[in-house]
Amino acid sequence: AQSVAQPEDQVNVAEGNPLTVKCTYSVSGNPYLFWYVQYPNRGLQFLLKYITGDNLVKGSYGFEAEFNKSQTSFHLKKPSALVSDSALYFCAVRDIGDYKLSFGAGTTVTVRA
Amino acid sequence: DTAVSQTPKYLVTQMGNDKSIKCEQNLGHDTMYWYKQDSKKFLKIMFSYNNKELIINETVPNRFSPKSPDKAHLNLHINSLELGDSAVYFCASSPRGTHEAFFGQGTRLTVV
After folding, report:
1. How many whole angstroms separate alpha carbon B92 and alpha carbon B72?
2. Contact status of A5 with chain B (Cβ, < 8 Å)
C-alpha cells in the first residue's frame, strides 16, 4: 500500500521569505514522487518529480524538492516566495510498477505581500 | 490544443438522474484516470484504464461506470445521482511507468 502525508493544512509566509511545504510518504518499494499545484477553480498543474538520481530536483516556477530516503520525505521548497505562489499544493506518490498515483490531503499556501 | 479536456465543465442535475462526463486526451498516453475531489479538496482515485483495459477500480459505488472506447477517451457515467456525488471530477492521463499525470480542468458536479 502507498500513502502520502502532508502534515500542515496551511502554510503562511511573507513575500520574499523561503517557503517549505512538507511531505512524507510510505511505499512498499521505491517511490516515484511528485508535486502538483492547484489554483482556485483550476485543474492540477505538475511542478516537479523525483524518479531516481540526484536527491534535489528542480521544477517549474522556481520550485525545488529534496528527496530524503531515510526520512521518507519529499519537501517542496522555494527560496523566495511570491504572492502568486498562493495556492493549494499536493504531494503524490507512485510505487514502482504501480499505476496508482496517490495524493496527500493538500497544503494551502498563503503568501502575504 | 488542450492536452486533457473534459466536458462539461459544470453540471447541475437533480437527484436520481443519470449523467455522463466525457474526457479526451491528445497526448498519446496509454493510461487514463478518474479522480474525485471532495469539498475538503481531498483527491481520491476512482478508476484507471491502460490501453482501454480497466486496471484500477477503487471502492466506488457501482452506480459509477467508466467506459473507454479507445485509448484517447475515458468517459464516466453515473446512474441515480445522489447528493453525496456532488464534487469536482478530474480526468487525467499518463504515459506508462514512472511519469507524472496530466490533469483536465475538472467537472464540477452539483446534485440538487
Report:
1. 11
2. no
8 Å CB contact of B102 and A34:
no
Q: Rounded CA gap, B74 and B21, in Å?
A: 9
CB proximity B106 to A under 8 Å:
yes
Distance between CA atoms of residues A98 and B32, nearest Å:
14
pLDDT band of B55, cuts 50, 70, 90? confident
Note the pLDDT tens digit of each residue in B87-100: 999 999 998 755 88
pLDDT given for residue B57 in this prediction: 86
Which residues of chain A have a CB within 8 Å of the CB of B5? none
- pLDDT at position B1: 62
Q: Does B95 touch chain A (CB under 8 A)?
A: no
Q: Which residues of B touch A53 (CB under 8 A)?
A: none
The angle formed by the CA atoms of residues A65, A21 and B101, to the nearest 5 degrees, is 60
pLDDT digits (tens, 9 = 90+) for A75-110: 999 999 999 999 999 999 998 878 888 999 999 999
Asked if the C-beta of B90 comes within 8 angstroms of chain A's C-beta atoms, the answer is: yes
Residue A51 pLDDT greater than 60, yes or no:
yes
